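# nightly structure sweep
# worker-07 picked up a monomer target from the shared queue
# config: single-sequence mode, recycle default, output format = structure tokens
# input follows
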Amino acid sequence: MAKKKVEKLTIEEKLNNALIPVDKQPYEIPQNWCWVRLESVINLYRGVSYGKNDGHKKKEQDDVLILRGGNLGEGYIQTEIDNVYVNKKLVNPVQIVKKYDVLIVSSTGSSTVIGKAGISNIDYSDVAFGAFLMLARPKEQFNKSYIDYFFLTDIYRHRIRLLANGTNINNVRVEHINGTTFPLPPLAEQERIVNKLDNYISKIDLAKEKIEKVVNLSDNYKNSALLDDLKKNILTRAFGGILGTNNPNEGNSIELLKTVL
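# output follows
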């Protein structure tokens, strides 16, 4: 029996699938931005599945470190916490962690931890991730740091907590991530936003480090919480197009979107 021919979508049809309808857009953004589904700007991968007897604590030849939930902080990853290794034969090359990759807690009993995103700041050759995590890899056509910062916003985290909520275990599905609404500005605006965020957030993080050295733990907690709120506020402004960096005359982000469709 002859196979049914698969019809290719036109660019207009692809755009229609990628763009978020007006009535589903969370809030207003600049006119030269557009709302898209997150799958338009990332590739999403599941973690390495391995049996109980496949994992071990001591690294052997041809082993790969498997990152798990405990290795993820808010916006960073740690590779020296209760390590587990498996033979690289169990790992698909796309599961090796690269710079700008976002590791996401996709299954946990904690409603506060679900969706937590750790961002890789280097290319690894022997680090992958386990089945209770997912990996979001920004596409080359965009500013990868701009996409990474989105995973630190309340916009993203609140959606994931709502969708992943379960009776005992919270689970993030592929469609939860891929279907998340994402505000896409032109490339030059992405770069300006990242420059500002890098500057602001590095200063906030430095201030938190200094606060942690203060003896009064009560003041530490209050001041650290205030800085966390400030960071969230800056991120919200950045992804709302109100950081003061947008140039409405430099073209529409839809043209950028077309390059990946």
